[in-house]
Amino acid sequence: ECKNTDYGDEDEACKFANANEMDLIVMNPGIVIGPILQPTLNFSVGVVVELTKGKDPFMSKSYRFVDVRDVSLAHIKALETPSANGRYIIDGPVIATLKDIEKILREFVPYLCIGDDKNNEDIDLDLVTYKVSVEKVRSLGIEFTPTETSLRDTVFSLKEKCLL
Length: 164
Known about the structure:
Elements: H1 9-19, E1 25-29, E2 31-33, H2 43-52, E3 62-63, E4 65-67, H3 68-80, E5 86-90, E6 96-97, H4 98-108, H5 135-138, H6 147-160
Parallel strand pairs: 1-5, 2-4
Antiparallel strand pairs: 3-6
Helix pairs in contact: 4-6
Organism: Brassica napus
Protein name: Cinnamoyl CoA reductase
InterPro entries: NAD(P)-bd_dom_sf, NAD(P)_dehydrat-like
């Protein structure tokens, strides 16, 4: 039986599943990047585009990305695993700082203005981090794609679709 969560749509899905005697597994991904299928930007990949312009869309100084292929595989594994249940958080297990992201993006798009804002160099911000347990999703057999690979494939996909 699904438990009410007070999370809006998830709560409604839970009510529906209970009323219709269905199992419900909820996948909650973080910022999903990677190759895109559609010819337009979505929110998550738009974050990468903003980063390639030297902007920090969330002013967070660090990001956790999860690859779309990992999210897709998690959905499949949850369907195929009889013991799968409840809510799965699918967030990048590695925190990438803006400097990490800039270094990776410069490798694949060196002609862009990534990180050229010299005003932020002297600011020493403590990174506000949060802990995320990805053990539950790993129990489905998910091994996360490295952030560098996900960013590279995102950039290549954006170039291919003329969105960068």
